[in-house]
Design brief:
Keywords: Elongation factor, GTP-binding, Nucleotide-binding, Protein biosynthesis. GO terms for molecular function: GTP binding; translation elongation factor activity. This is Elongation factor Tu. By secondary structure, this protein is mainly β. The chain has one domain: Translation factors (Elongation Factor Tu (Ef-tu), domain 3, Beta Barrel), CATH 2.40.30.10. The protein contains no helices and 8 strands. The strands form 2 sheets. The protein has a 6-stranded antiparallel beta barrel. Strands 2-5 form a two-stranded antiparallel sheet. A hairpin with a 2-residue loop joins strand 3 and strand 4. It is globular, with a radius of gyration of 12 Å. It starts with 5 loop residues before the first strand and ends in a 9-residue tail after the last strand.
Length: about 100
């Protein structure tokens, strides 16, 4: 199994719940949506209106390097519908970090 790319505070805003293994799209760059797999620490789901700390493993991070920084807010989408967001807490995959 692939290691997670980031740790984030994940917030559910327009869905009944996000469950461990949820695979929505993430707007990592202004013009790039990518799939990521969610896992939450010490819980199975994040219900509507809740936030949880967890990890996201992106499907193909090599396609969008240098796009994240701690504190960045990433839209979580189902198609064109924004259902929540993830705020980056830690970047484990250095390829994704914005070079200063």
């Amino acid at each position: 199994m692939k290691k997670p790319d980031i740790e984030a505070i994940i917030t559910c805003e327009r869905s009944n719940a996000f469950y461990n293994g949820y695979r929505p799209a993430h707007l990592v760059k202004e013009d790039y949506l990518t799939t990521g797999i969610h896992y939450y620490y010490n819980r199975e789901k994040v219900s509507f209106g809740e936030s949880a700390l967890g990890t996201i493993t992106f499907i193909s991070p090599e396609a969008y390097p240098n796009c994240l920084i701690e504190g960045k807010r990433i839209n979580i989408q189902e198609g064109s519908k924004i259902v929540g967001y993830a705020t980056v807490v830690k970047i484990f995959n250095e390829m994704l970090r914005i070079k200063e």
